[in-house]
Here is the input.
Amino acid sequence: MSRYVGAIDQGTTSSRFIVFDRKGEIVSVAQKEHRQIYPRPGWVEHDPLEIIANTEEVIGAALARADLKARDLAAIGITNQRETTLLWDRRTGRPLSNAVVWMDTRTAQLVAAYTRDGGQDRFRPKTGLPLTTYFAGLKLRWILDNVDGARAQAESGEALFGTIDSWLAWNLTGGPKGGVHVMDVTNASRTQLMNIATCEWDEDMLAEFAIPRACLPRIVSSSRVYGELRTTHLKGVRLAGILGDQQAALVGQTCFAAGEAKNTYGTGSFLLMNTGKQPVQSKAGLLTTLAYRFGDEAPHYALEGAIAITGALVQWLRDNLKLFDAAPQIEPLAASVEDNGDVYIVPAFSGLYAPYWRDDARGVITGLTRYANRAHLARAALESTAYQVRDVVEAMQADCGIGLSSLRTDGGMVVNQLLMQFQADILDAPVIRPRVTETTALGAAYAAGLAVGFWDNIEDLRANWAIERTFTPGMPRERREHYYRCWKKAVERSFGWVE
Here is the structure.
């Protein structure tokens, strides 16, 4: 009997393969970064062929490190960077262009044109989403309009559209030789082309965005057997779970009840609250999205606050400003000063996402004096993550009327003790770090394992969740509100930069 479940975690900066046991503990992991391609200001691309090659490489490496074979895995799941968009040739498997990454802003003129004719929220009732450069539908429209031959191939069905989950699933199950062309409901809900009530492609949205139906994948549940893998290392293993990365983290944190929430700190940060089996339309700048759908059960929905730049700001300080050599060095540098020195960084590199949705915003550093040094910049960068999370929490409370009792956290930045403590302080609520922080990959593994009976039900998954540490707020109220008030002033300074 197979003892493990595997998960492909294909993120914005790297691809990983992680093997989990029945208790949700990590057995083996391998990771490899891929290039970030910046052809023009505001444009961000990935090479899809590099991503699939890296994925196959890390699968082999993780299996080798634990001396595992395909027969040891009951199934694998996929979790992926959402909204990143590509179109590829059905016959050759070659992408028609680089993938357009979720944070790319090249569709700003399209967004502006649609917004002028009905407002930013004109499609919210059907899709749960505002008009912004973030989502995949208009990225696909841009590719169709700007890549030679793309529209004709898409209309004939010779070119296939997908987000990264679709690209991986198609390639790993055979590619041009019978690969399955699917997209799970969580990723489909991020295209602005799916009707959130029916979980089907919406004909009106396809017509509005001029998207040919022939290129679209089949929308499927997040947990079911889609097909068998035909790759070198996992030949015959069932592909049985797909979730967008933030929904996967919600599942990995076992937030299965309405009102349960998590925040993932990665390249960006994403706070999701399970709202149950009915979608909740946000009036405070949040997104209404699919949380998950297991098998033939009714879909579960979530409210989401999406923050574009958090961990990416640390990378920017490392790579562009050369403030330190490795990301973990930011914590001791930031801790070397008592406070932020009245410095605030608003990392609106691609505009501001929730709850502001300002495509015209750009990054600013405010409060600079001769007193400020690189340690203050490091501290301000970490604090900006916590402030942005509070922005989203306040919007979520306005929509739901439910106060935050605690926040479950995961992602690469949660190892930073200074950030976690400041997050608790600025929220005035406990921040909980679980024992297994790789909850994104774990959620994909859970979805796959449920589909094949490796776990019987969600109660098996709840039994695996355990707390590693709780950060308790201790900042005086006056100081907390002073910091947050200054942050809000800094945010206002970022507005209106792009004309």
Q: What stands out?
A: The first strand starts at residue 4 and ends at 10. The radius of gyration is 22 Å.
